[in-house]
Design brief:
Largest sheet: 4 strands, antiparallel
Shape: elongated
Structural class: alpha+beta
Helix content: 55-70%
Strand content: 15-25%
Radius of gyration: 19 Å
Distance between the termini: 17 Å
Strand order of the largest sheet: 1-2-3-4
Number of strands: 4
């Protein structure tokens, strides 16, 4: 916990750190990912990445409009638009997962760097 608080105090991350949970967002532009760590029963943090709340709402709206557009296009007999929207959606989803893993990796690297400075 002490090291996570140091990451926030040194300006590398914004967010909250509690005893069983933390929510951090890296101070880097552009950064659309929030890292959430929840303490499990093994006393280890499980870290996930997701969009911040405002972006989450925008993504849901875009997905809903893409679904409606695809259904209308399929009803009219046009298969190209739903196929293109599906391919773009899959590519965006894969990109989100890779970028989320990169954000988790950056957090663990900074955490280990601060850990080595403090305890080595």
């Amino acid at each position: 916990m002490n090291i996570l608080n140091k990451l926030v105090r040194n300006g590398l991350y914004n967010g909250t750190v509690e005893s069983a949970r933390f929510e951090l967002k890296r101070n880097h532009f552009p950064n659309n990912y929030k890292l959430i760590g929840i303490l499990n029963e093994d006393e280890k943090f499980e870290i996930i990445s997701k969009f911040p709340d405002g972006m989450n709402l925008a993504v849901k709206f875009i997905l809903f409009s893409g679904l409606i557009t695809s259904l209308i296009s399929l009803y009219k007999g046009n298969w190209i638009i739903p196929i293109l929207l599906t391919v773009c959606g899959i590519i965006t989803y894969i990109g989100f997962k890779f970028k989320g893993k990169k954000e988790i990796e950056l957090l663990t690297n900074k955490f280990l760097e601060f850990y080595k400075m403090e305890y080595a």
